[in-house]
Amino acid sequence: MKTQQEKPKVDNHFLIVAAEVDFVDRVYPTEKACFSEIWRRIRPNKRCQFCGSARLKLKFGNRIGNCGRCGKKFRLTAGTIFRKMRMARPYLVAIRLCERGIPCSARLLSRVCNIAYASALHIFNMIWGAVLKAMRNDGVLVSSFEFNAAICKRSLETPAQKHPVNEQEHAQEVNSESAVNLEEEFAARISVFKPELNLVTESIASADDAASTPVAPCPERQIYGLLSSEPRSIDDLVALSRLEAKVVIATVSILELTDLATLVSGNRVVLSADRLRAQQPQVDSQTQAHVGQFVWFIKKFFHGVSRRYIQIYLAAYWCFIDRIRWAKGAVFEQCCKTAGVDLKTFVSPLNLQFCFA
Ligand SMILES: [Zn+2]
Question: From ligand 1's centre to the CA of 67, what distance in Å?
């Protein structure tokens, strides 16, 4: 009897990536060749930092050269993403994959290039960080709450014993422009919460009647009005609201109980995630569809991201989806132009830049 023969499983995605590695190996067979390719790309825009001369001489195989005019030393990779590069080949492979629009996780790159996972992750983060620099003013702002489905990895920013999604409550608004938008949004929203607020006002008013201390007509609203995504200390709230400290503390606990505010580390108060989310502008259906695609993209190739670095993965998504903008040579050029982002201090803002066309 003939039994059905089991076909060996072939990972197509792996084969596609391996073919690109093979291509890089054929065009740049040695580390020297990889290096001179990077030099060739950096060369056109490289100037001496002391005299501005373009007559730069590089000792072959060395990353330091001399200026042909003033004779001072220059570093080839300074100001580019290659500044901490040990081996050039994995960089070329990663850039090639990005330019061809082939998604590849750091795990896969570490496998095909035979390097450590951390190095592979660093290479991709540097490249996408450079792409991110080109993202300014090019996309729409979408709140990171929309991407909750993709966020499942921890980072140093994740609060202890909480899901990575909770980082958002602690995320500080870095973009001052969107902070202004938040304030406007808040003014519109506060009228919606008015009944809710009146309810808590009554409760605190009756509690304060017993103590017979004069209170402001609506301390909740006053305190709530002072809250934002930026954590504020109780002392700050006392100073800003000019209310008694005990009233402020009581009000904050009421706001916390009604899920309007959250206490974070250092006894500071922020708006609760629910309220922050409610403040975010609604996204249109087209953006919503792309958010869904991004989540699929992340789950399929990266299994998940941390909230801290999600902005970098949004840049990666843009790079893979916009095949005209990031066609051959564009990613390499961008990598030679910028130093990328400082990964040690990078934290994704609450409103993320999202490009999809
Ligand atoms: Zn010079």
Answer: 5
Give the integer Cα–Cα distance in Å for 199 and 196: 5
Q: Which structural domain range is residue 262 located in?
A: 180-279
Query: Could you tell me the distance, in angstroms and rounded to a whole number, from the CA of residue 54 to the centre of ligand 1?
Result: 8
CA–CA dist 321, 181 (Å, integer) = 29
Nearest-CA neighbor of 205 among 221, 193, 222, 218?
Answer: 218
Residue at 72 is within a domain: no
Supply the pTM of this predicted model: 0.70
Sign of CA dihedral 323, 324, 329, 334: negative
For 207-231, how does the pLDDT look when each residue is reduced to its tens digit (9 = 90+)? 444 444 444 567 777 787 777 777 7
Where does residue 59 fall: left (phi above 0), alpha (psi -120 to 50 degrees), or beta otherwise?
Answer: beta
Q: How many C-beta atoms surround the C-beta of residue 44 within 10 A?
A: 9
Strand partners, 353: 141
Q: Which residues lie at CB < 5 A from ion ligand 1?
A: 48, 50-51, 53, 67, 69-70
Tell me how far the alpha carbon of residue 33 lies from the centroid of ligand 1, in angstroms.
26
From ligand 1's centre to the CA of 332, what distance in Å? 25
Cα(78) to centroid(ligand 1), Å: 15
CATH number of the domain encompassing residue 184: 1.10.10.10
Judge whether 273 and 88 are in contact, CB under 8 Å.
Answer: no
- Residue 254 resides in a domain: yes
Is residue 202 assigned to a domain?
Answer: yes
> 59 alpha carbon to ligand 1 midpoint, in Å?
16
Higher pLDDT, 95 or 212: 95
Q: How many helices (H) and strands (E) does the chain have?
A: 15, 10
